[in-house]
Design goal:
- The protein is mainly α.
- The chain has one domain: Methane Monooxygenase Hydroxylase, Chain G, domain 1 (Up-down Bundle).
- It has three helices and no strands.
Length: 70
């Protein structure tokens, strides 16, 4: 992006490029979260450690809150 700005590229083209990068990052974040849910969260919920279950659920709520405020 910096190169586009430095090269005085058309503003809208730069914005489109930023949007493409954001979309790519969103997809990566979704895949990582899906994997986390399938592994770490599932293990914690099925486990006998109540504190770990609470910690994992609190962690998920924090991720949700940050994502929904963006």
């Amino acid at each position: 992006m910096k190169k586009m700005v430095d090269a005085d590229k058309y503003c809208i083209d730069t914005i489109h490029q930023i949007e493409a990068v954001e979309a790519g990052l969103r997809k990566v974040k979704e895949k990582i979260l899906e994997n986390h849910l399938d592994t770490c969260v599932t293990t914690a919920i099925k486990g006998n450690n109540a504190k770990e279950r609470e910690r994992v659920l609190k962690e998920l709520m924090e991720v949700y809150k940050r994502s929904s405020c963006a």
